Fold this sequence. Notes:
By secondary structure, the protein is mainly α. Helices cover 66% and strands 3% of the residues. It has two domains: 1-56, Multidrug-efflux Transporter Regulator, Chain: A, Domain 2 (Orthogonal Bundle), CATH 1.10.1660.10; 62-202, no CATH class. It is built from eleven helices and two strands; from the N terminus they run H-H-E-E-H-H-H-H-H-H-H-H-H.
Amino acid sequence: MRISELSERTGVSSASIKYYTREGLLPAGERTGYNSTAYDESHVARLRLIRALIDTGGLTVAAAGKVIAAIDDPDIVLDHVFGIAQQSVPRDATPPSAAAIEQVHAIMRERGWATVPQNPGIPLAAGVLDDLAMTRTDLSTVLPRYAEAIDMIAEADLDAVAASGDRDQMAEAVVVGIVLGDVLLAGLRRIAQESHTHRRYRGGVVPCQDHETDETTETKESS
């Protein structure tokens, strides 16, 4: 397919396609003439991955490039791909407090989690605990339950990776699971929270929703 068709199928502009190729995120197409290039389904799949990493995952182009390079390098073992993907996810630059770090380490010891000291999840979780402490919200009583749930999710992540097939598919599954999995879990959590709220406080009854916008309501009131 020509670049115009690739752009139409993926929703990525021709200029962006050329940019991603120059930056090494997207393999070059096959030259079929002086001023023409052909692309195939692998380019469609790669562009969708690139946009998912950047648009949904919030990665910069440079960070997405590092992650994709790790996927494409057969000499990088999967646990290193995990590390590269984890380090690429945006996070708060403010160092967390020692007390919050110790809280996280306590949960790690309780669950038997072993990681390298620079695992980005440690300062990420500790930073959230610091923010919660400033709002006078204490999560210490529910942290063990959160950790138990996360253990199950982490096992499910690895099961999904193992079921992917060959090394390239497994590496891509690693990246998708880390970068996009956080967004997916946030969405599912919000759904479950509302459902459990209705069960607990409304006897399972879902309240009716007014789908009219404020603008529509104001128009009706003024007419």
